[in-house]
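Q: Two folds, back to back.
A: First:
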Amino acid sequence: MSNNAQAWTYASRLFVQTGTFLEAILSDTERQNLNVLGRLKAVTQVAADSSYALCPYCQMERGRVTRDEDGLLCDCIDCGSVRLTESDLRTWSFNADWLTKQIRLALDIPGQQAATQITKDLWRLGYRDHHAVILARNVELIFRQPKDWARACAGGRGAPWLITPKPLREIDPSDSGQKIEWLPMEDRFMLFGGALRFIVPGQFITQDEGDIDPVHGPFSKDFSWVHLEDWEHGPIALTDAQAAVFRALWHFEGAPQLAERVMNKAGLGSTKPIDVFKVKSQNRLDPKYEGQLQAYKMLISTERRAGTYAMACAKRQA
């Protein structure tokens, strides 16, 4: 199992829980998963009482934290004074806002449809093909909170889509007597390139993270992904036409070219490169599409008088 797959499985487990957790009690594998999720902002460090700490030696007793000339100590009743590291005091919580945004992006839910938090454990993320898309911490909420479930389903036509982590015991949402399309998080989504991707039921996707790694400057090997600095949503997936434009400009090695030559090289019938990056009104504020336009603005420079286009990152290094 890849690092991303392990981290996504761990994220699904964390989402079920509420509250905070100590880094000190995690296994080595869980700490690796935490590092991956931390880079994605799927977990956040929270302030906690640092006057007491769990003993890092026995992990059974909490002791008062003291300091000597070499650093911090935990005064454990059983173990005595035990040296502490920074990680022994770090407390984390899972970022549910990150998850709701990522699932909305993966399902192409328009930005105009605001996510609605029904309860602390239940969200309506919007609508997909007129079906209400509902995120819940566990399947049992549809049995335990029928009124809240009804509120979440409001406005949808057809069977609602229910997204939850897999339960520990076997539960069938259809036992509620309602038509529900259940999408277990671990099976129907995958963490790929710093973002979630939806796996259509019946479709199988293999994870080859090398396919999105930057090879040509900020671009992946086939130019279908681009990595931008300070873009918080991770690598940006490009359409075939957008990838063709960037591939053509890369071929010209940073030399300014007329729009006609660029588009001919790209094999496209559009007049200008910007034509394939325009964001439709229904997709505005959606990071998936705004990211593609941002890549165009950041990487392609234009000279209006001359009518030329160039990409500085494509210049060969001397």
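A: Second:
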Amino acid sequence: MIVKIGLPLILAFIMFSLGLGLRKQDFARVFQYPKAFFTGAVGQLVILPVFAFCLVTAVSFPPEIAVGVMILSFCPGGVTSNVLTRISNGNTPLSISLTAITSLVAIVTVPILVSLSVDHFMGTDAPDVDILGLGLTMFLITAVPVALGMLVTVIAPGLVAKISGMVSRAAMILFFMIIVAALASNWAVFSSNLPSLGPALALLNIGMLGIGLAGSRLMGLKAADATTVSIEAGVQNGTLGIAVGSLIALGATESLPPATVPSAVYSIIMYLVTVPFVVWRRRMQG
């Protein structure tokens, strides 16, 4: 029940909370910050999956865990990246724009890349991935709730101003509930793989934060833009990763499958790694 109904609804609610903070101009900011947007998009959509693939190949994870790490790397940043960018004195409008547009792109890219990853890592044991069905499901539980959130903001801005804080807190609570559920459903897989999975995911997080900064310096970006690009590259939507990991295994299980474990573990590790980074960037930028 939690997989088939509860998880999609929770993700939809979290995406709705993201939509409450979006405005139509957020999608046009690519023209306001073209160089910074390009740097952030390439880091998130290209470099992150390549880095993750090299990592899981080097560590030799069990197939489902390898697929789970790859799923995580395909997911865009979420509300968390926007919040951390704001706290770090980064370019929050740029962060919101990157999150909004890469979330739309992910509806197309994630199903295709997940199918390729499943075939590569699981071979003959790979479940059939319905690319069109997965894409449609992602559209329904991500794009539609975001659009509804934006519509509510336009129709009732006063109401949104009153409830946005409560909605954000509820979304955060639901987010942690999903993490706990994913780990509890796969405790044996989690505990047996944690010695290798934990450091690998920490390296993924640290590596992408560093690559984001290096790429920003190479592109000559301002400090605030560089902070934003780094956070967007290093902080992913763990809830979406858990949802996608579940969707590709619905036919085989009623509980959250092992492919959801990396996203759940990463959702904890990213705070341990990224918060010190945020504090450092905040102090550096005054």
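Q: And?
A: The mean pLDDT is 86.
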